[in-house]
Amino acid sequence: MAVGKRLLKGVYMSIRVLFICHGNICRSTMAESVMTYLVEKEGLADRFYINSAATSREEIGNGVHHGTVAKLKKEGIPVIPHRAVQMTLNDYEEYDYLIGMDTENIRNMQRISGGDPDEKIYKLLTFAGSGLDVADPWYTGDFEALLLSIRQMHRNMNDTLHQIDDSSIQVLAGSENLAQAAQNLAEGATEQAGAVEELLATFSDITSGVEKTVQHVGDAGSMSRQYAEDAKKSSEEMKDMMAVMAHMSETSQKIGSIIDEIEEIASQTNLLSLNASIEA
Fold first, then answer.
1. Does residue 6 have a pLDDT over 70?
2. 16, 27, 47, 91: which one is catalytic?
């Protein structure tokens, strides 16, 4: 059974109520029509989605019972067009309130829902402060008693309807606050993402600078090693040159000594020649 939703202030929001009886042609259809009429009178129609269903398959596809139709028309309450359907587990998940008419309905509803784990199942007259069953007019023929029971439930449920409406508004406000918080979080995440990108870009620049520095240091190291090798080579060449100059100096001294000796011999030779001339 498809469950309708209402668009409320930009948010799909509705209180979903499913009335349930055995065949879905007498009691639950009357409750559906009466409650729809009531919430429209209270100006709450846009806050509720109201439907009905059966626990059995005996009347599947059949329309609203003629006794229910006649009683509603007599009271001036519009009859909601409906064809009997059976309650499903999906209905239990989709609706907020699943309201049965008697103890047998409640037992079958719990069987279909797997034990009412979310505590959504109620007996109709519990809203009127009573745990009594609503008699089935299919057997009693008393549609007046049925209407009285439903009116009693709705009279006592009137305050509940407004409480439910107030709760829905609070939930809506909470949803809007949550949406705003999510938007703020998204904007904050975007700003943080931008800051992270800037940080990554800065880190990339730093990394690039370090790589260039390392490269420059490597180049400088290579140049330093070349300078050291060249200096060492020059030092060795200088040593060789100094050794040659020392050798040349030593040779020059020896040549000077030889020249002195030659001059000494020449001087003695001249002296001998002079003496010989004198003697001659």
1. no
2. 27
